[in-house]
From TrEMBL, chain B:
InterPro entries found in the cross-reference section: Calcineurin-like_PHP, Metallo-depent_PP-like, PdeM-like, Pesterase_MJ0037-like
Location of the Calcineurin-like phosphoesterase domain: 37-133
Organism: Mesorhizobium sangaii
Molecular function GO terms recorded: hydrolase activity
Protein known as: Calcineurin-like phosphoesterase domain-containing protein
Pfam families: Metallophos
PANTHER family, A to Z: BLR1149 PROTEIN
Coiled-coil portions: none
């Protein structure tokens, strides 16, 4: 604290140009301390990480060093060459770049600065891109993919020669993905062009700021860090959990029970933002709200599968405050500031505490006023999770996924991109790449294998030398072998690989597959469309649609109706429960004094569990066994997220098979895992064949994991992503499918062939690493197994326990068609009655 | 090792299908065997597809020819046929046979030797494969059977063809299963593609229009252990 006055004195000497001071004065504002400090540090030549809550004037702070420098720059004389880009702003979302252009343009105009600001995204027309190359703007707002493309252009070095600052917005969300790896490599390249380049990172609160600080600067010497400025949080948000009069369901994600209460809340506020975790939830909620919408309030829907035009219309209406409510998924997440939102409703569990903080930030973008939010848990476990998230938010605890080592498929793409820009020397490029924080630990041997992969595929069987994409020339430089290679690279750049999708094409009813030329409503995953029969009704874009059939790359639909409506599930839509929240939830279960904060019916549920079975201690793992029907069930409660539970389920089932317990299946949720078998597993554990401790031993992550992995669809899915990013197979573009399945080679076939002939190929290595971290969540599972060693609590019961009801209701959920819904409901009702001991 | 014993033990009466009166085995590995003729038919090997795509910049693993030959070796070892018909598109393009690695060429020649081997011309390989033994034909009639690459537009009883790479799809309990398949209506049979990198096209696609009597069309889907005969009413497009 003693530093504070000195800082102010120092700040007084910071050159804030006169027009800026006047502008602040006219607005009746004064520059905030962190804005001035950032300016001072940047003027001193430092790269800086600014951590501040939403509404703290982060964006203006980030641009101040650029704007003040540009304000003092002498004007270009006629006839002088055009100057290059001065400041590059990179954001994870196209929409954010567009939004910043609008928000930054206003002060620039009011201050009267001679500064040009333009965006460059995938939507920018080609004539404008061309013009930007000839007459670059001073400030270019863009995305990581566009940076990769700019670097792969032959004139890249000249284009960036005047670059002074790179501004990275929402850095905490960028760095955790492969896009972050691509961006880190791009930054390393920019530092090569401009050695004195300064970076400014803007981030929400994170648990490990040092990781981001290293990320911002070159890692030679290793461990170098950017400066850090932290702004304390603003007013505490006003968050409540809906304490519903209605019955809170045991399982499911629809939160249908709370619709009347949500609708009342919308009516009481100006504009309400409703967030859900998945697109299918968004569709359902939207549908239910309109069913309740007696006053015909303008309520809109926004998610990533919808047609771009429709999304833009919703965003525009939102900006004009023409909407009363918007149902949205993560496409509207992050720091976008639209309209006059005075309430955020979060339906379903918020999963990660930092995600919750982000979303609450939507409401009321002024730092000193509290934001208002209501959490709507969709089921009873979510009530616990919401409560934990709420406590976490007040505690200011934030979690982001840990940073992982740079992916090799991304490096492959980058190496090819660099070659497309200019010939490279392998030694120099290796040093440059190691300067990027995610690749600081990269071994030279691995790097050389990547270069070999880019050149000829890197196969042990040297068959493709004559088809090499890049070649080492006499001077020792690697060059692209053919202009076609650069063309292909440009079409495939980026790290976001969508699962195969079909356009949803609307035709008039009764025309069937013969109908032509209706509008495209959006995109749907191919594998969902494949489970539909002509005549099936499903929910999409807020409408009930009738499935007519699949025509080439289109899913043809007409107006639908009826009672049995299917909701598409989107594979990418589920977030795992964060480690931090999982621990909080376990803590709440163990401590009955905290149940007072829970709704009465949920507290009752836990009390009943304590009475009929047991509640585990915070660090323990509870495993229940009980017979039901002619099956034997085992339910475990690790709270480690669905992905880790799925992996655990696979591995336990394999072991139980070997122990002759004759397991039949398993089901996993975010909270628990249920396995059912023909034999009595409790008897097996008692006879130590195997013991429960042996069953859950960490050694399952060795050979069992390896053996299962090789045949797993998850590995194939991951391989496809890696192969596309690495440039082995091309992205699928709309319209290409017309050539038919028999022409292209599917990634699955390539995987099978490569695995049996060269299992240690670099792309398979990359795939295994990815799958372990991503879809399998192996590290999470490993942590859990080591944590519960010697702390597994077995409870054998005569019948299902209250805590087991939610997961037992998940069994058989994949039955979506026809009248089966009725029998599922009946099954559900029976389970509940049984658990409560009412028969 | 007694060859004839090994051969008969592979074939159960139940696995036999009739094509224009001839008895044939639809093998789960994607080949057709006629025990009475000691004839084995295989279609769409697409050898050297990997190197063909590599020429155009897609450096996919160069192991497809090896993988395909290994599987072919296995079925030939099991059935010990005296006649082998490769039903066209044996190579992915005209230069495939020349590009083939020497070790693969040797393996292929060893398979051919001691048998009557026919290369039926396909759209990918209209000319005879360079310097390989075996006889190249446009089509081949044996008994009541006619072997050709592309199925003819008009109905021909006893026609065995390839070219279309059939697969079939069913949906059970909300889950979709797609497999390569033989497609036959008792009069005509279209064989699945055998090559390691060959994709497939659903039998309900319009490319198959008019080829089959729809009331008797069956898809013999390739399983891990056996063939699954599925009637048309169970099949799904896509």
């Amino acid at each position: 604290m003693t530093e504070q006055p000195r800082l102010a004195e120092q700040n007084a000497t910071v050159a804030l140009p006169e027009p800026f001071i006047r502008w602040f004065g006219e607005k009746g504002w004064s520059p905030r301390a962190h804005q001035i400090e950032l300016l001072a540090r940047a003027q001193g030549g430092q790269s800086v990480l600014l951590i501040a809550p939403t509404g703290a004037g982060k964006t203006l702070a980030g641009f101040l060093p650029s704007l003040t420098e540009l304000a003092n720059r002498p004007r270009r004389k006629p006839g002088q060459a055009h100057r290059g880009i001065h400041t590059l702003y990179i954001s994870p979302l196209k929409a954010l770049a567009v939004d910043i252009e609008r928000n930054l343009g206003k002060p620039v105009e009011e201050i009267g600065l001679p500064v040009t600001i333009e965006t460059r995204t995938g939507d920018t027309p080609s004539h404008k891109r061309l013009r930007q190359k000839l007459v670059p703007p001073d400030i270019l707002l863009t995305t990581p993919e566009q940076l990769a493309l700019l670097i792969a252009a032959p004139d890249a070095r000249r284009f960036f020669e005047d670059l002074r600052y790179v501004l990275l917005d929402e850095l905490h969300s960028l760095v955790t993905s492969k896009r972050g790896h691509l961006l880190a490599l791009g930054l390393a390249r920019l530092r090569n062009y401009v050695p004195g380049l300064q970076t400014i990172g803007l981030s929400a609160t994170v648990a490990e700021p040092d990781e981001l600080r290293r990320w911002l600067v070159g890692q030679n010497p290793p461990g170098a860090m950017a400066g850090l400025i932290t702004v304390a949080g603003g007013a505490k948000p006003d968050i409540s959990i809906l304490d519903s009069e209605q019955h809170v369901p045991w399982s499911g994600h629809s939160a249908r029970y709370a619709i009347p209460e949500i609708y009342e809340a919308i009516k009481r506020h100006r504009t309400t933002l409703l967030f859900v975790n998945t697109r299918s939830q968004a569709e359902l909620l939207f549908q239910e709200l309109w069913r309740a919408n007696e006053d015909s309030l303008p309520i809109a829907l926004h998610h990533g599968s919808l047609d771009v035009g429709q999304r833009r219309r919703v965003e525009k209406a939102m900006g004009e405050n023409a909407l009363r409510a918007i149902v949205a998924t993560s496409t509207l997440d992050l720091g976008i500031d639209w309209g006059d939102v005075d309430l955020v409703v979060h339906v379903g569990a918020p999963k990660g505490a930092s995600r919750l903080a982000q979303r609450i930030g939507r409401a009321n973008h002024r730092m000193d006023e509290p934001s208002k939010a209501i959490l709507i848990p969709a089921n009873r476990f979510e009530v616990l999770e919401c409560r934990a998230a709420l406590d976490a938010n007040y505690l200011g605890a934030q979690d982001t996924p840990p940073l992982i080592n740079g992916a090799l498929d991304v490096l492959s793409q980058h190496v090819l991109g660099v070659a497309c820009g200019a010939p490279f020397d392998a030694d120099h490029l290796f040093e440059e790449v190691r300067g990027a924080a995610p690749y600081a630990g990269l071994a030279r041997e691995t790097f050389d294998r990547v270069v070999d992969f880019v050149a000829t595929g890197g196969y042990a069987l040297k068959n493709y030398e004559r088809y090499a994409r890049i070649r080492k020339t006499v001077g020792g430089l690697w060059r692209v072998s053919h202009p076609r290679v650069a063309q292909q690279y440009r079409l495939n750049v980026g790290t976001i690989v969508e699962m195969p999708e079909l356009n949803v094409r609307y035709v008039r009813q009764g025309r069937g597959m013969a109908g032509r030329g209706g509008p495209v409503l959006g995109k749907i995953e191919e594998y969902f469309a494949e489970t539909l029969r002509p005549g099936d009704n499903f929910l999409f874009a807020g409408k009930v649609l009738r499935f007519e059939g699949i025509r080439e790359n289109e899913c043809v639909v007409s107006n639908g109706a009826g009672a049995n409506i299917i909701v598409p599930s989107y594979a990418g839509g589920k977030f795992p429960l964060s480690t931090y929240l999982a621990d909080q939830v376990r803590g709440m279960l163990a401590d009955s004094s905290r149940w007072q904060a829970l709704p009465e019916q949920v507290a009752d549920w836990l009390r009943l569990q304590k009475e009929k079975s047991v509640l585990p201690k915070r660090g323990d793992l509870l495993v229940e066994t009980f017979p039901r029907g002619n099956r034997h069930y085992m339910v475990a409660y690790p709270f480690e997220g669905r992905l880790a539970h799925q992996t655990l389920g696979m591995l336990l089932t394999r072991r139980l098979e070997r122990a002759n317990a004759r397991p039949l299946g398993f089901v996993a949720t975010d909270y628990s895992l249920a396995i059912w078998a023909l034999d009595d597993m409790a008897a097996l554990f008692k006879a130590k064949k195997p013991s429960l401790a042996a069953l859950f031993d960490e050694d399952m992550l060795g050979d069992d994991l390896e053996a299962w992995l090789n045949d797993s669809w998850m590995l194939k899915r991951t391989f496809r992503t890696c192969a596309v990013i690495a440039g082995l197979i091309e992205k699928r573009f709309p319209g290409q499918e017309k050539s038919g399945r028999q022409v292209t080679v599917s990634a699955d076939l390539i995987y099978d062939v490569l695995r049996s002939h060269e299992p240690d190929h670099i792309l398979l290595q990359a795939t295994r690493t990815d799958a372990s971290a991503g879809l399998l969540d192996v590290s999470r599972l490993a942590e859990m197994l080591s944590r519960v060693r010697g702390r597994i609590m077995h409870k054998h019961l005569e019948q299902i326990s209250p805590l087991a009801v939610p997961i037992m209701l998940e069994i058989g959920k994949e039955l979506v068609n026809g009248g089966a819904n009725e029998s599922l409901l009946m099954e559900a009702a029976d389970l509940v009655e049984e658990a409560m001991g009412q028969r | 090792m007694n060859f004839s014993l090994a051969r008969t033990s592979l074939i159960a009466e139940a696995d036999l299908v009739a094509i224009a009166g001839e008895r044939a085995v639809c093998d789960r590995r994607g080949v057709l065997y006629f025990p009475d003729l000691r004839l084995l038919a295989v279609s769409d090997l697409h050898l050297e597809k990997g190197s063909s795509l590599a020429r155009r910049g897609a450096l996919i693993p160069p192991y497809d020819t090896g993988a395909t030959l290994l599987r072919l070796q296995a079925v030939i070892a099991d059935y010990q046929p005296s006649i082998v018909i490769s039903l066209g598109d044996s190579f992915h393009d005209g230069g495939g046979a020349e590009r083939m690695h020497a070790s693969f060429r040797e393996r292929l020649e060893a398979l051919i030797s001691g048998r009557d081997w026919f290369w039926v011309a396909g759209n990918h390989d209209p000319e005879a494969p360079a310097d390989l033994p075996g006889e190249t034909v446009r089509e081949l009639a044996i008994g009541s059977l006619l072997f050709r690459h592309e199925p003819s537009k008009e109905r021909v009883e006893g026609e065995i063809a390839g070219h279309l790479h059939p697969c079939a799809r069913i949906v059970q309990r909300g889950r979709s299963v797609r497999r390569r398949c033989f497609a036959g209506d008792g009069g005509r049979m279209i064989m699945p593609a055998f090559g390691a990198y060959t994709g497939s096209l659903n039998v309900l696609d319009r490319a198959y229009a008019g080829l089959f009597r729809l009331d008797t069309l069956m898809a013999y889907m390739l399983g891990a252990e056996r063939i699954f005969a599925i009637s048309r009413s169970m099949l799904r497009p896509g």
